[in-house]
Amino acid sequence: MTARTHYAHGEPCWADLQTRDVPAAKQFYGRVFGWTFTDLPTPDGRSYAQAFLGQDLVAVIAPQNPLQEAAGTHGQWNVYLAATDAEEVAEDAVHAGGKLEFGPEHVADTGVLAFVSPPGGGTTGIWQAGTHTGSHRFNEPGALAWAELLTTEPQAAVGFFQQLFGHDVTEYPQDDGGSYWTLIVNGDEVAGIVPAEEGDDAGWQVYFGVSDLRKAADAAVEAGGELLVEPDDNPEKGSLATIMDPQGGVLSLIQV
Length: 256
Description:
Layout: E1 12-19, H1 22-33, E2 36-41, E3 47-53, E4 56-63, H2 66-71, E5 76-82, H3 86-95, E6 99-107, E7 111-117, E8 124-129, E9 144-151, H4 154-165, E10 168-173, E11 179-185, E12 188-195, E13 203-210, H5 213-222, E14 226-229, E15 240-244, E16 250-255
Parallel strand pairs: 1-4, 5-8, 9-12, 13-16
Antiparallel strand pairs: 1-5, 2-3, 3-4, 6-7, 7-8, 9-13, 10-11, 11-12, 14-15, 15-16
Helix pairs in contact: 1-5
C-alpha cells in the first residue's frame, strides 16, 4: 500500500472526531479499527489523540470545545475538503449562497483551516495543506473511504460546491423520485450529496473502510457502541453498516 501524499482541490482529505471523552473514544475506535494513538497537548491544557495504522496517520480524536461540552453535544465526525487556497474558498462561500463559519486560520505550519456550510446547512471543513496533507491512507481498512452530505437543499448544495471547487457532477435518479448526486474530481467520484429526511439536520456522513464488515460491526457492539444500520448477512465489497460510539458519534463502515 502506498501512503497518500497529495489530495486534489475538492477531494475529501481528512476526518476527525470531536468528543466529550477522548480516552473512551480511543478505546472504542482502537477495538473497531486497530488504531494506535499518540497523545498531544491542546493549547488549553487538554490533549488530543492522533490515530495511526502502522506508521500512517489516519484520523484525530479531539475534545469538544467548552460550548459543545456545556450544551451536551454528542460526538461529531467532521469532514475536510482539500483546497489549494483556503482563503479564496472562504471568501467565495458567501457569494455562493453559503456561510463562512470559521477562519480561515493558519494552524502553525500544518495548514490553513476554515469551516463553511452550503445552503441548507452541513458544516464542511476546508483544508489547505502545509506539512499535514490529510489522511496517509484512503479507501483502505481503517481509513477514510467516502463521505456524503445529507441536506434538505441538495441541488443548492451541489451548486455551492461546484462554484467553490469546480466539481463535475453525476445525478442518479432514485426509485422514490429523488436523486443522489456525486461530486467528481479528475474523473473520480469523491463525495455524495443526499436528500435528507424532513426534520433531519444537515450534516456529513463519514465512511471508514473495513476488511470484514460483520467483524467490525460486532467489535463496535462489544466495545459499547450501537448498530444503527445492520450489515448484510453476507457482506461483500461495498456493503455498509452504520455504528454509533458510546459518546454519540455516528460513523458508517464500508467493506473495501
